[in-house]
Amino acid sequence: VFAHVVQAPEDPILGVTVAYNKDPSPVKVNLGVGAYRTEEGKPLVLNVVRRAEQLLVNDRSRVKEYLPITGLADFNKLSAKLIFGSDSPALQENRVTTVQCLSGTGSLRVGAEFLAKHYHQHTIYIPLPTWGNHPKVFTIAGLSVKTYRYYDPATRGLNFQGLLEDLRSAPLGAIVLLHACAHNPTGVDPTLEQWEQIRQLMRSKALLPFFDSAYQGFASGSLDADAQSVRMFAADGGELLAAQSYAKNMGLYGERVGALSIVCKSANVAAKVESQLKLVIRPMYSNPPIHGASIVATILKDSGMYQEWTIELKAMADRIINMRHQLFDALRARGTPGDWSHILKQIGMFTFTGLNTEQVAFMTKEYHIYMTSDGRISMAGLSSRTVPHLADAIHAAVTR
Ligand code: PMP
Description:
Blueprint: H1 14-22, E1 29-30, H2 47-58, H3 73-84, H4 89-92, E2 96-102, H5 103-118, E3 123-128, H6 133-140, E4 144-149, E5 151-152, E6 157-158, H7 160-168, E7 175-179, H8 192-204, E8 208-213, H9 228-235, E9 240-245, E10 257-263, H10 267-285, H11 291-301, H12 303-334, H13 341-345, E11 350-352, H14 357-367, E12 369-370, E13 376-378, H15 387-399
Parallel strand pairs: 1-12, 3-4, 3-7, 7-8, 8-9
Antiparallel strand pairs: 2-10, 5-6, 9-10, 11-13
4'-deoxy-4'-aminopyridoxal-5'-phosphate binds near residues 104 and 184.
EC number: 2.6.1.1
Keywords: Aminotransferase, Transferase
Enzyme class: transferase
């Protein structure tokens, strides 16, 4: 009965790793994966995470019972505080409902399902380009996906005028997906002044902000600085949604820990919204897993562990920034044609190199460098050892 099923293509991002794994070359480099690697190219488990796990293991009172549909209460409260700030009026006024979800993706999906059911506007605007999973998540939840201009290939920066024009002509009340910081794949973020203009325009047209916060602390090394965009919108008293992921900033990729927050106009509305979120979640997966959320809650509620986390987080962010400098210097040393200053300017895990599909294919074939075909490289996958090889490959690709 399944003989008619056709072979589906590999996921464009995860497929890069599949191809990398098949390559026997000893010089191969995987710059496709959006996960942090150490200088030695190894995945990293934070010390503070190991410590939290040890505490959890040693605590014999912990059991493996089901969590509530909305997840671990402590985790939800602490996650909201992390993104909105401890002095957030919305939190003090109990106008925010936060539910634990399956990492960033699951948080986006639950938010999208809720909007499709309970929000009058079904059109969502996503930046062009954006993370490849965004259009899929929103479409499958029943929303209609449109794009707004974001990246300007000519400047390798923000197309701010295009962004404003597109949001200005969006229908009243439309949903707008915003990357809270460290835009994926471009590494281009609005400045605080630009965020303020975006906020004013969006509020004047009742556009509903849906923030995707997958890199808080990873962009600048500061958890507060990376949440400024979200906090700016929360401070005006209006509604918003925010999807948080602990995959990158705590290195909890496979634990699938995240949260969806919906900021409402009153505590009464927030309680009703939460009751409906439960109806969204229950038939999807009943309730979320306990282990990862317990790790996060353990770290966030202990001031010593929290401090330790911020130090380890900053070290990851700094290593990535250092890789930007090394790659930039290596290209300059080779006299590689072009202006590569965007490598230094772009923010977060990725550099949008500006290399085209053919150049990427050439680098993969001749240099065994694996990256997405849009020219995005993960700076977190680079090391001092692999920078020269990458610089050689880029040089060869652009001077061919
Ligand atoms: N949003 C963006 C922009 C991302 O880059 C990612 C991870 N690549 C996610 C959401 C979700 O990741 P996860 O589900 O692993 O938390």
